[in-house]
Amino acid sequence: MNQAHRRIYAERRVARPRARAATLQPAETTILERLHVELPGMTMLDLGVGGGRTTEHFAPRVKRYIALDGSPATLRAWCKRFAGTPYEFLLGDARTLPFHDDTFDLVLFSRNGIDDVDHDDRGRVLREVRRVARHGGTFVFSTHNLERVFDFRAATYHMWLSEQLAQLHQAGFERVRAFSATTGTEIVSLAHECPPERWLYFLCRVA
């Protein structure tokens, strides 16, 4: 890993705690509002869905909703919670998504789930999202911000805003927008490092 890029990554955690709160993060609320006109026609993939915190907010608004997580225990809990709904759940790995190319209009990876893998695997996740998302589709995710390096947790990936932008463009994403996770406000000037937010949300389009 290139130390000049000032990335920090420790050994991956075996298990990652899932948020129990049913409410959306402020940035998620902002993004949901901005996509509300498009959502009814979208096929959505919700990566690292956990217990379904985001399911209850996004799934009723889209045409088709598919959740994916790597935990069998999560699968059982999720299926029990959403029994009787048309929503779908699959066991899987974001690095090797079990879907055909150009399947989804919207891919969401919330709660910094993309930070649970190392640098090389992060690139694989981005390429897989790019592959399964349709041209002009939307990718939304959150990630830890290296501006808050003093507050980072072991075994998570942190990077500068400028690095994240470069990584997304290299992977085939465009029209990238960043939002504060804590306030939901958009970071207007992406040419400069953002204020010290603990993590950031990104909304971008598939090139």
UniProtKB/TrEMBL annotation:
GO terms for biological process: methylation. Residues 45-141 form the Methyltransferase type domain. GO terms for molecular function: methyltransferase activity. Keywords: Methyltransferase, Transferase. It comes from the Bacteria. PANTHER family: METHYLTRANSFERASE (PTHR42912), N6-ADENOSINE-METHYLTRANSFERASE TMT1A (PTHR42912:SF93). This is Class I SAM-dependent methyltransferase. It comes from Pendulispora brunnea. The lineage of its organism: Bacteria, Pseudomonadati, Myxococcota, Myxococcia, Myxococcales.
